[in-house]
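Lab intake sheet, docking and co-folding queue.

SAMPLE TYPE: protein with bound small molecule
LIGAND NAME: coenzyme A
LIGAND FORMAT: SMILES
REQUESTED OUTPUT: full 3D complex as structure tokens
PRIORITY: normal
SUBMITTED BY: R.K., bench team

The fields below were copied directly from the construct record.
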Amino acid sequence: MTIFAETPRLILRELVPEDAPGMFALDSNPAVLRYIGVPPQTDIEQSRTIIEFVRAQYRDNGIGRWAVILKESGEFIGWSGLKLIRETVNGHSNYYDLGYRFREEFWGKGYGFEAARACLRYGFDTLQLPVIYAIVKQGNTASHRIIQKLGFRFDGTYKENGEEIAWYEKWREETSI
Ligand SMILES: CC(C)(COP(=O)(O)OP(=O)(O)OC[C@H]1O[C@@H](n2cnc3c(N)ncnc32)[C@H](O)[C@@H]1OP(=O)(O)O)[C@@H](O)C(=O)NCCC(=O)NCCS
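RESULT FIELD (auto-filled):
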């Protein structure tokens, strides 16, 4: 199992089929999906399909979201990572998006920031990406905070399905993290 990054409290590794129960716990909770815009999952098969989808991205794009594991317990607490977005969003296409999603019982402990920072470092230091983008819906205060703490620059908003979404960008040479 490939480990891509490690932080003081977390291991970031490839998503594997055995993560399906953890992924289902994540994506069947409406509170987790409040600012995502997808309906809660109702069948663990949906989680298995998502994991296969992400693993195909590893093969095809060399990158995709990673499982985040708590070192002290070995638990799957969620995912974070970079995704190659091929379609056009807010006038951009073929770009790398930073994202994260954690099980509700693990919120508010700094894991979101810790994991996201490790992913950002990997993108800039290992993949040598010139720029990484992130989108955050209005009202998702914790996510806005993570992105701002990482030093992303707010670059306006765009509308998707009538909803206002903030567009953030961070260039490798702009700041250190
Ligand atoms: C967004 C999310 C990843 C945040 O993860 P987290 O581990 O709780 O975040 P952290 O503990 O690292 O906190 C990050 C910052 O947000 C703040 N914060 C956390 N929860 C907050 C809340 N409910 N309201 C306001 N601020 C909050 C923290 O205080 C911290 O800021 P600080 O360092 O200035 O104190 C988590 O809430 C989540 O998985 N949400 C559902 C999925 C989602 O919305 N993903 C993002 C889509 S853009």
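REVIEWER NOTE: The beta strands are 3-6, 10-13, 65-70, 76-85, 95-102, 131-137, 153-160, 163-171.
SIGN-OFF: pending second check by T.M.
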